[in-house]
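Complex 476.
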Amino acid sequence: MPTHSLFNGTSHPTPVGWPENVGILAVDIYFPAQYVDQSELEVHDGVSGGKYTIGLGQTRMGFCTDREDINSLCLTVVNRLLEKTGTDPSKIGRLEVGTETIIDKSKSVKSVLMQLFSDCGNTDLEGVDSTNACYGGTAALFNSINWIESSAWDGRLALAVCGDIAVYAAGAARPSGGAGAVAMLIGPNAPLVLDRGVRSSHMEHVYDFYKPDMSSEYPQVDAPLSIRCYLSSLDACYAKYRSKAALRGAEPISLDSFQAVLFHTPYCKLVQKSLARLALNDYVNLSPEQKKSQFPQLEKFSDVSLVESYFDRDVEKAFMQESLKSFETKTKPSLLVATNVGNMYTPSLYGGLVSYLASSPADVLSGQHVALFSYGSGLASSFYSIRITSDLALLSSALTCLSDLHTRLETRQKMSPENFVSALSTREKAVHAVSYTPEGETATMFPGTWFLQSIDEKHRRQYSRHPIGQTNGVGH
Ligand code: ACO
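Predicted structure with acetyl coenzyme *A bound:
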């Protein structure tokens, strides 16, 4: 929609129509240029072989040295998306950031990103940061969509950004870390359109994962509670999505309604269990006759209750088996970044979207209906859906941003578990340090990566950018 068509030509901008097909115009991801191999970490940590790689489904874990912080991750991904799409920064009217990596209790990451808009003199940019564990990226996305669909819209585009450095204290949770950032350009007439009127949320007060210690990057985690909360939120959001879709006259919703189902991914095994959980929900919703005729092999589960089955091994196993084919086609392609980079917290779900979009050519993705489940401990969760355009030219142009995804994943540097642990120790010492110059290597960073140059005695951070034309020095 041309920008001027929104206005009546008076000095008071009055919307004259609802913008159509509001959604994601383009998306890009950034992850650090080094990783630790999860099977080497198993040996280093003295756990049984397969615990991280099979038990959690994780292959590699990206991590940051003290050269990167949440500001630099977001500077990098926003700068790259603007460059790759050729977007004029003055055409952005809203910039939203979702993160739970807090380095300043007052100053937003968004305000740091304003540096990218200073050359063109664009200071008219709404939006600040949203925080609720891994949910902030979804809040940023929804806020951006809402702005474009609101009376406040001035015809420009929005940017929804999410990033985090996910690190855990030594112990069982450490292999479920990761780091990265995703930026999404939001506007009308998009190739990825968010369905209206059906997105559904479940919000609750729970202490399952939280970060009360301001002097540490590490969270407090009640792991069994966090898994239970994740699965029960999925049940609640899916039920509400189904009933909202029914109210709008849609065909009854089931896994068959979607060609892809993407999840926030703390670790890949939980995602496979979550798809099985949706298959269980579909089964529970059938009449006794339908259960008997369509799924005779599941007869012993005909009276299963959702609330009593979160940790029921028999139910879990049966529905994982039942949903295996769906998992292979609808969900597994979305786990490329999650298994190779790890849980990036707020960008985790959007790393799933990026992976899914990079998994097939445009003519396969065209017209698909994609479901997404976002979860942030504490807790906030939503289930929503996206329709991929059938306009192949529009879709292909959006996908070009992701054409280097596989190369970037493969040209990262493998670091030893000792290097990884040492990088985390350095980060521990650097949290809130003043008059600090980071030690981390910059030569091996991806081209165009922003990094922390120094922190002065008043905690003010200075950043530089790795030259765009140089490689990261790692063989292709
Ligand atoms: N080979 C294959 N599988 C193995 C092996 C092995 N050698 N050893 C263990 N496993 C399996 C276990 O059977 C278990 O499988 P299951 O989940 O199907 O039961 C799995 O590996 C994990 O092992 P556990 O001993 O059960 O769990 P652990 O104490 O290692 O902790 C956990 C895993 C809870 C995921 C931990 O990494 C954690 O606390 N992570 C952070 C919390 C989290 O991610 N919560 C999810 C939602 S909240 C959020 O997004 C942050």
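The two ends are 41 Å apart (CA to CA).
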